[in-house]
Amino acid sequence: MTATLARATAPPTAPRRRRRPTRRQGVAYLLLAPAVAVLAIGLGYPVWWQVTSSFKEFGLAQQFGQPAPWVGLDNYVRIFTSDALWAVVLRSIAFCLFNAFVTVAIGVGLALLMRAAGRWARLALQVAMLLAWAMPMVAAVTVFKWLFDWRTGVVNWLFVRAGVVEMHEHHWLASPLSFFLVASLVIIWMSVPFVALSVYAGLMQVPEEVREAARIDGASATQQFWHVTVPMIRPVLAIVLLLQIIWDLRVFGQIRLLQDGGAPVGDTNLLGNFIFELGIGRQDFAGAAAVSIFVLALTALVSWPYVRALIKELDR
Amino acid sequence: MKILRFAAVGVAATLALAACSSSPSTPEPSGTDAASPTQSETEAPAPEGAEITLWLAGGDTPDELREYLKTTFAEQNPGSTLVIEQQEWGDLVTALTTALPDAANTPDVVEIGNTQSPTFTTVGAFRDLSPLYDELGGDKLLQSFVEVGTVDGKKYALPYYFGSRYMFYRPDIWSAAGVEVPGTLGEFTEAVAKLRTNDMSGFAMGGQDWRNGISWVFAHGGELATAEGTTWTSTLSDPKTIAGLEAWQEVYQKASNLPATDRDVAYWEFLNDGTDGAAPPAATIMAPGWARWSIGDLTTNDAGDEVRDGMADESKFDIFALPGVDGGIAPVFAGGSNIAISAQSQNPELAENLLRIIFSEEYQTLLGQNGLGPAHSDYVSALGDDKFARTMIDTAAGSKLTPAAPGWAAIEGALVYEDLFQKIAEGGDVTALAAEYDAILTPMLNGQTS
Predict the structure, then answer these.
(1) Does B123 contact A at CB distance below 8 Å?
(2) Does B6 touch chain A (CB under 8 A)?
(3) In this structure, is residue A29 part of a structural domain?
(4) Residue A218 lies in a domain
(5) Which of A100, A295, B260, B387 is positioned for an S-S bond with A245, CB 3.0–4.6 A?
(6) Average of pLDDT values for A302-306?
């Protein structure tokens, strides 16, 4: 994570590098070789396994030594013709986009607040966010589960105290919509600090003179934000948004832990949980591998525009 | 560098997602290293100085019994040691799926939930124990558990212990409301419906809790599935099964305040008084016998910790067996475990020696004294003859198991019955749901992927 953070907070306009002599390039490749080898072994091998088993018949019997015959695209056909998958895909994409955009919006808001706040207030805010960011996921979800517990949760209690008696013993996790509301709260709460701190670092790169000039020219605060600040921190915004989308698409643990508390599992599965249920739950390893490959493609598709933009910037 | 580092982050993120599927090649971290295979490559009968591993599920086997196994094994097999590792119930099937096929990492002896046995016996994960069967107790072993571990007449998994479930209730609250311990299942529904208030379940039952719920199916003479030869058919649409499911729907809707989505509920907490003597959240629960030790008034144990007194006050806490439709005792879902030897075990002789200890009179008696039903019928008396032991033996005698179908663990893993029972609890049309889920379950029972 520190690498990501450092990466994201680096000045958006790094000095362009000059081409070095060929001899130096050889050394560079040599230095890169170990990292590439580790990547190839650590990531390449599992992916190769994933791809090959998605074309085989691979269930519990194969795990215990039965031959795994090639079945071509059978697994893909079987998975993609089931309604269950498409419901999960649509749900995951909607959930991911909602959370990513809300997280970035709140994060930007907090970053602006930090810039405007006094030293001590800013420090308090930063410490609070770092603590939230450092909270282990399981602990965070457990706390939220307790908050929203139908019998002893403080949320229902507050509602009843405020006069909303229908909320007495309200079952938050029992219907998919309020289940996802709770899940979104956990996920947004956990990821806002990263966005806020990254964007705040980006804001620090916006020269005070530029904003002053805009002010003198009569730009309102809103105009300053949209026409001066946003264009200057666009690279940071793009990265944190992309990372949020990727992270929120692969949400798994939060949903799983909330489901353990009793939830309509079939109606609340996201892609990660769906794959888990297929592979671990039903021992349909081949089907799970096929869905994983699909998710891999989906993630590549989502991140492709950004990677292309990055390459263009580099070629400039 | 910039682009490379970013690419690395991107690739890592993407692959972490893909890795969710747990490619079958990925070994499951299973605590400590299992027996080292190098020591046993000689294939000598009872290798010297070997180490074998026993996987126990959950904390059900008390420490006293674990110590007994370790000491006795070391005494009877000089130079060899027994290592006991505990796996949690929720991850047991996953851990077994990844560890059993791997000769270098397999545990030698494993405890497995009785209903999970067929999943592994049918793919050849366990060693054939038929030659040992008569020596370990033969026909005196609990037969329903033996059957669930048998494939084509060969015995791959034997009973470890049995449990049962019965009703725990609050006599003080029941008598204050003027209801008596019921004689039939219908009277039970009436009684707990009458006890229910806005703040207290007459009978606390989560909507997804099919393991307790199927008792109503069994009580009405229904079955979840039947086998013809080796072909399984889901029989939810059988009129008797439907009658049972409808009776369960009625008792859930009339008597329970719990969400329709609740499953693994710590029911015993519902029976205890609230803070400062407040009324409990439920007047009746259904739970395994050992729940007793989590129920009662607060007291202090020798170590000075606050614990429950194990239902010492009979005027406040008591038990009864779930009554049948026409009186008597309803057949409930039998709890308990089987035990088996991994087919890949590098020390099968030592593993068999461990089974000899487990099925010995001493260990079977220890099981009984600790409230776990001994697998060997000669030693069931070790359970004692207080009301807890009697009720456990009576309910276990009529209890039933879930279908011994190859796809059963996959059905449990995919939470299919949880979904079905939730929909019934929410007031769904039982006949329509039964037909819908029969179509889903029949291929799954036979181990076919959707």
Answers:
(1) yes
(2) yes
(3) no
(4) yes
(5) A100
(6) 81
B158, B136 Cβ separation under 8 angstroms: yes
State ipTM: 0.79
β-strand pairing of B51-57 with B81-87: parallel
Residue of B23, B433, B437 to mutate, testing the A interface (most A Cβ within 10 Å of its Cβ): B23
Is A119 within a domain? yes
- pLDDT-derived band at A196, boundaries 50, 70, 90: very high
- Domain range for residue A202? 54-315
B residues 291-320 lying closer than 8 A (beta carbon) to A = none
Query: Which residues, 6 or more positions from A79, have their beta carbon under 8 angstroms from its beta carbon?
Result: A85, A287, A290, A291, A294
Q: Output the CA angle B205-B208-B212, nearest 5 degrees.
A: 55
Amino acid at A171: H
pLDDT tens digit string along A215-235?
999 889 899 899 999 999 988
Domains of chain B, start order? 50-163+335-397 (3.40.190.10), 165-333+414-445 (3.40.190.10)
Tell me the three state secondary structure of residue B363: helix
Judged by CB atoms closer than 8 Å, whether chains meet at B24 and A285 is answered as: yes
How close A204 comes to chain B (CA, Å)? Answer: 21
pLDDT at A316: 65
d(CA A58, CA B390): 47
pLDDT beyond 60 at A249: yes
Residues of A in contact with B261 (CB under 8 A): 171, 173-174, 262-264
Q: Which residues contact B273 (CB under 8 A, 6 or more apart)?
A: B279, B280, B297
SS3 B22: coil
pLDDT digits (tens, 9 = 90+) for B364-420: 999 999 889 999 999 999 998 899 999 998 898 888 888 888 888 889 888 899 999
Instruction: Give the CATH number, domain containing residue A75.
Output: 1.10.3720.10
Q: Is the CB of residue B446 less than 8 Å away from at least one CB of chain A?
A: no
Q: Closest to A64 (Cβ–Cβ): which among B4, B5, B125?
A: B125
pLDDT for B286 beyond 50: yes
Question: Which residues numbered 169-188 in B keep a CB inside 8 Å of some CB on A?
Answer: none
Instruction: Give yes or no for B22 touching A (CB within 8 A).
Output: yes
CB pairs under 8 A between A and B: 171
User: For B281, which of A151, A281, A307 is closest by C-beta distance?
Assistant: A151
Q: Is A31 at the interface with chain B, CB within 8 A?
A: no
What would the two tokens of residue B439 be? 């179509």
CA distance readout (Å), B57 to A81, B22, B385, B407: 38, 22, 27, 21
Answer whether residue A40 is part of any domain.
Answer: no
In terms of DSSP H, where are the helices of B160-290? Answer: 171-176, 185-195, 210-219, 239-255, 268-271
